[in-house]
């Protein structure tokens, strides 16, 4: 009995120490939740409920080894800005560096390349915005606001210019020769082309003409420590090659398989 009692007595502080150690380890591993405003459903950049997409995957990877856990809050752009500036949310994604001085800005982490897309068979030479002159052009809703004054000036000289919110139909209208050119984000239109092929089986080779410089976007946070952690994670992600791997993975998903071959998406410089 004595030996059993002594054994139990000796075991008690050891168990206590083990439990205390486990609790401390759990506390040290707990991350600070950071609520970040992000765009609504915009594949392939942001999927439903921010469950994935190029931008979401990049930000998750950037903060993966930091002390912060991102919580994505999807909102229309105006509400994103309002929620961040009123400090309802901790951060905001996809911001033009010159658009605001609120909080701290990270290094640029994502780019959007807006292009002009034409059917390859037409062999159209488009090297810049002035080459849209005299052509029928289709773009996304709000393009004249988002793509800048130079684009807004260029479309004044087009034969016909239309904006449409349903970019899924842009590929169909291009194939049917309703428009000479469609203008929009390279990745969004690649996804639209693949989905159109999946639905209809129709495919035409296209040229992508990068008529504008890429738009580079930063994130903003109210806490400088989060900006610093974000930049550190971003540098590590680029150095390891994982940043490029994320983009490459999505590019492979957007390729169109035709008769066992991949439909190439050409870009003309």
In short:
By secondary structure, the chain is α/β, with parallel strands linked by helices. 40% of the residues lie in helices and 24% in strands.
Protein described:
By secondary structure, this protein is of the alpha/beta class. It has 2 domains: 126 residues, Periplasmic binding protein-like II (D-Maltodextrin-Binding Protein, domain 2, 3-Layer(aba) Sandwich), CATH 3.40.190.10; 100 residues, D-Maltodextrin-Binding Protein, domain 2 (3-Layer(aba) Sandwich). Helices cover 40% and strands 24% of the residues. It contains 9 helices and 14 strands. The strands form 3 sheets. Strands 1, 2, 3, 4, 5 and 11 form a 6-stranded mixed sheet that branches. Strands 8-7-9-6-10-14 form a 6-stranded mixed sheet. α2 crosses α8 and α2 runs antiparallel to α9. The longest helix has 28 residues.
Shape verdict: globular
The number of helices is 9
User: How far apart lie the N and C ends?
Assistant: 88 Å
How many discrete structural domains? 2
Computed over alpha carbons, the radius of gyration is 25 Å
CATH architecture term of the largest domain: 3-Layer(aba) Sandwich
The quaternary state of the protein chains shown equals single chain
The share of residues in helices is: 40-55%
CATH superfamily of the largest domain: Periplasmic binding protein-like II
Secondary-structure-based class equals alpha/beta
Largest sheet: 6 strands, mixed
CATH level-1 class of the largest domain: Alpha Beta
Strand percentage, roughly? 15-25%
User: How many β-strand stretches?
Assistant: 14
Instruction: Outline the low-pLDDT stretches.
Output: 1-28, 264-269
Q: What order do the helices and strands follow?
A: HEHEHEEEEEHHEHEHEEHHEEE
The chain-level mean pLDDT equals 87
Q: What is the third-level CATH name, the topology of the largest domain?
A: D-Maltodextrin-Binding Protein, domain 2
């Amino acid at each position: 009995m004595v030996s059993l009692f002594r054994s139990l007595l000796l075991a008690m502080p050891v168990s206590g120490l083990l439990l205390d150690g486990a609790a401390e380890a759990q506390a040290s591993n707990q991350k600070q939740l950071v609520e970040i405003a992000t765009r609504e459903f915009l594949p392939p950049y942001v999927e439903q409920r921010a469950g994935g997409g190029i931008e979401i995957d990049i930000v998750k990877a950037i903060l993966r080894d930091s002390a912060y856990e991102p919580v994505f809050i999807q909102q229309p752009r105006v509400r994103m800005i309002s929620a961040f500036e009123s400090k309802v949310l901790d951060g905001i994604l996809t911001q033009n560096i010159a658009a605001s001085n609120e909080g701290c800005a990270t290094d640029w982490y994502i780019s959007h390349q807006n292009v002009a897309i034409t059917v390859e068979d037409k062999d159209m030479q488009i090297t810049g915005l002035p080459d849209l002159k005299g052509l029928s052009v289709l773009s996304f809703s709000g393009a004249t606001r988002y793509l800048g004054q130079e684009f807004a000036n260029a479309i004044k000289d087009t034969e016909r210019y239309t904006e449409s919110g349903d970019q899924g139909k842009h590929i169909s209208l291009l194939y049917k020769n309703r428009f000479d050119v469609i203008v929009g984000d390279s990745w969004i239109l690649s996804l639209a082309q693949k989905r159109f092929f999946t639905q209809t089986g129709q495919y035409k080779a296209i040229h992508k003409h990068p008529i504008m410089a890429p738009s580079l976007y930063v994130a903003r946070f109210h806490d400088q420590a989060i900006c610093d952690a974000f930049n550190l994670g971003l540098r590590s992600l680029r150095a390891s090659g994982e940043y490029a791997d994320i983009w490459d993975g999505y590019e492979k998903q957007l390729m169109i398989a035709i008769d066992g071959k991949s439909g190439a998406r050409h870009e003309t410089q």
